[in-house]
Write a structure and sequence with these properties.
Elements (H helix, E strand, L loop, with lengths): L4 E5 L4 H12 L4 E5 L2 H11 L3 E4 L5 H15 L2 E6 L4 H10 L3 E4 L4 H24 L8 E6 L7 H16 L3 E6 L6 H5 L7 H6 L6 H6 L2 E2 L5 E3 L13 H14 L2 E6 L5 H7 L4 E6 L3 H16 L7 E6 L9 H8 L3 E5 L4 H8 L3 H4 L4 H21 L1
Parallel strand pairs: 1-2, 1-3, 3-4, 4-5, 6-10, 6-11, 7-9, 7-10, 11-12, 12-13
Antiparallel strand pairs: 8-9
Helix pairs in contact: 1-5, 2-3, 3-4, 6-16, 10-11
């Protein structure tokens, strides 16, 4: 195997020394340092480096501008090490294609782990390019989202996952990113022995096999990575670690369904940035409609294209003096799926049996199955 090379763009000083130590902690075979990004890029191109680490002395915008050549022609992983990391920086970096973002003050092992993931990403990318199979190996990611609780988001996510697993015969996983109060386990009738918290605690050595050991298996064949058992455990699960988990799942499965918390948290943003489709769930009440309108505006502001965002109207036959067309007008978007009310839904939740299995011929199950079929179609055609 060719020796691995990490190139650090940072002037000599404490920050540079800390990044060199982190690269050694990531088991890089060799490390090169340049005081400027331009110098570092020249080394990356000349020596076919595996990872570029841009230190706090480098403007993030300059790194973003260099990403096409780094991730494409060079196939190098990129880690941005900043003085401080906030949601805006994380979002901009991930959208530009940066593999990981860390704060210089993070524990040294966290920075090493980020560089290690960059090394692995570079190896995978170059291997995939050599085989011409990089795109084909990636799962389709469907995120179910709403900024209002109680709209049926988790019911939809779990039933979609079960429907995809049962009807496509492909590898399907669901991940519960409502880290404090996730209910995917309840909806699927699962008794968790491991959760995403356990996976996050071994992030420095997490691979596909280890991740599989933390997942539960539903009778439909659906694999589930469940939310932590205790709300306080959510605090230690960073967006970078969630991104690492999602990236592994994208390589191992054909479809990944993401259930989310009702907020634009960093965990949710990590999922949205990796999503092929976002199902925004709303209902026929004023509060839900208002929240959905604001959510759609925010998604547009964050740069998520309308073509990836799909509106699902739950309990669409509620008698509340509103028509579906009025909901569409109020939220400024077209509803692509109407899921009717049915008393069998709360009954299926209490039993821990998804309605698509409990009552597959019911109107609500038919609506969800149709949505699952539509979600599967593009990927099915691609893989055919």
């Amino acid at each position: 195997m060719t020796p691995s090379l990490v190139v650090i763009a940072e002037p000599e000083g404490e920050a540079c020394q800390r990044l060199i130590a982190a690269a050694k902690g990531a088991c890089a075979d060799d490390t090169a340092v340049a005081p400027t990004l331009e110098g570092a890029l020249a080394i990356v191109a000349e020596r076919t480096a595996d990872v570029l680490v841009a230190g706090p002395g480098t403007e993030p915008a300059s790194v973003y501008a260099a990403m096409p050549g780094l991730s494409g022609e060079c196939g190098a992983g990129v880690v941005l090490a900043a003085e401080a990391v906030d949601a805006d920086l994380l979002r901009a970096a991930l959208r530009a294609g940066v593999d990981d973002v860390v704060a210089l003050a993070d524990p040294l092992e966290d920075i090493s782990a980020a560089i290690g993931r960059g090394l692995e990403a570079s190896r995978r990318l170059r291997g995939a390019v050599a085989e011409g199979a990089a795109e084909a190996a990636r799962a389709k990611v469907v995120t179910v989202f709403s900024t209002k609780g109680g709209v049926g988001k988790t019911v939809l996510a779990t039933n979609l996952g079960v429907a995809l697993a049962r009807d496509t015969g492909k590898r399907v996983a669901v991940i519960d990113l409502d880290l404090e109060f996730g209910d995917v386990a309840i909806m699927l009738g699962l008794q968790p022995t491991h959760t995403i918290y356990d996976a996050s605690q071994v992030f420095d050595r997490l691979d596909a096999d280890l991740l599989a050991g933390f997942m539960e298996t539903h009778g439909s064949g659906l694999r589930a990575l469940l939310a932590p058992l205790h709300p306080e455990e959510a605090e230690s699960i960073s967006a970078a670690r969630i991104g690492q988990v999602l990236d592994l799942m994208r390589e191992e499965y054909d479809y990944v369904v993401v259930d989310t918390s009702p907020s634009f948290s960093e965990a949710v943003l990590a999922a949205l940035d990796r999503s092929d489709e976002v199902f925004v769930v709303t209902m026929m009440d004023v509060a839900s409609i208002k929240n959905t309108r604001i959510s759609l505006q925010k998604l547009r502001q964050l740069g998520y294209p309308d073509s990836h965002v799909r509106i699902v109207l739950n309990r669409s036959d509620s008698k509340v003096l509103l028509e579906a067309s009025e909901v569409e007008s109020a939220i400024g978007g077209r509803v692509v799926a109407h899921i009717p009310s049915d008393r069998i839904v709360p009954r299926s939740v209490n039993k821990g049996v998804p309605v698509v299995l409990e009552m597959p011929k019911s109107e609500v199950a038919r609506a969800i199955l149709a949505l699952a079929h539509e979600a599967a179609s593009p990927a099915a055609r691609k893989g055919a």
